[in-house]
Design brief:
By secondary structure, the chain is mainly alpha-helical. It is 72% helix and 0% strand. The protein is built from 19 helices and no strands. 49% of the residues are buried.
Length: 370
Amino acid sequence: MTSPERGTPRSLKQLESLESMEGIVQAEHSAPSSRSLLHRLPKGALVHAVYPGVLVAVTIALASSWLSQHYGAPVMLFALLFGMAFHFLHEEGRCVAGIEFSSRTILRIGVALLGVRITAGEIASLGAVPVLTVVAGVATTILAGILLSRLLGLSRIFGVLSGGAVAICGASAALAIASVLPRRDENERDTILTVVAITALSTLAMVLYPVFVGMIGLDHTQAGIFLGGTIHDVAQVVGAGYMVSVETGDVATYVKLLRVAMLLPVVFCIAFVVSRSGGARASGGTRLVPLFLVGFAALVAVNSLGLLTAPVVDVATDVSRWCLVTAIAALGMKTSFRDLASAGWRPVGLMVAETIWIAALVLVSLEFLA
């Protein structure tokens, strides 16, 4: 680490205090010379500090996407595993600042852009039953995560993180929630562990749940509500829904997007509680309303008004995906296999229990509210 005496650029030190640049750390580097192009650019010192680590994270994201397309495995899982293989880059050297930047700032950009996938009209078209089911599922699953985490001897913060990931939208929710939680030494390990377990459980659900809804005799609409209300990641919901029928796939997708919409109030509530408890000061001064949540809400509103064309939505969705995969790669580089192994079986057991809980709740709601 470079000490102030060795000459950290003053502009970079000033930028470190900004919430939008949260995660920039003082890493060993050389300042851009006065004759370089970076010196002439706005925020040139910042770009000089972060570009090596960002390039590594983007490269891992590209490789992971290629493998995912060719072998059909979840891209997030590939990004995590490849990132962890390059953990040594986060220990020291020029890549540290860029890895931190990717895991925080690029992550928040990706989460904000998720808002283009949601409109108020799509939510209203679902009717009361799915909305009530989703709200109850999200709230009770997070509460169940908090309670079960205490019974299993885990931290309450991990219960919130895992419960929110299971209840809302898997890896994306885990990343968004982790970004507003108080800073702890275990944060990165817990986030990576949550993403790994959620990805595995979501893939398993995509295979088993379509068979299950046929066995218990749900119609196409009910099957869509169940699949969209229980499977963790958006891609797996789409895959499972259209395995059953086009109608089931459409309903499942809308219900899942409703769960994604719950990301805004949930992360806002968590940020509020953290701020009130003093955790925000410990984590570096998190704002009561993080800027990426404001961006998320604004994009939902703009998209609901029909101001975004289909090509714009498609581009924003692709950018969001690349940002999230890049952030996952960076988180992987911040975590070692040894740290994950030291966590034991209890975190995975907690997420399995949360998955069973939300599935049972949705089934009960279909029985008594339909």
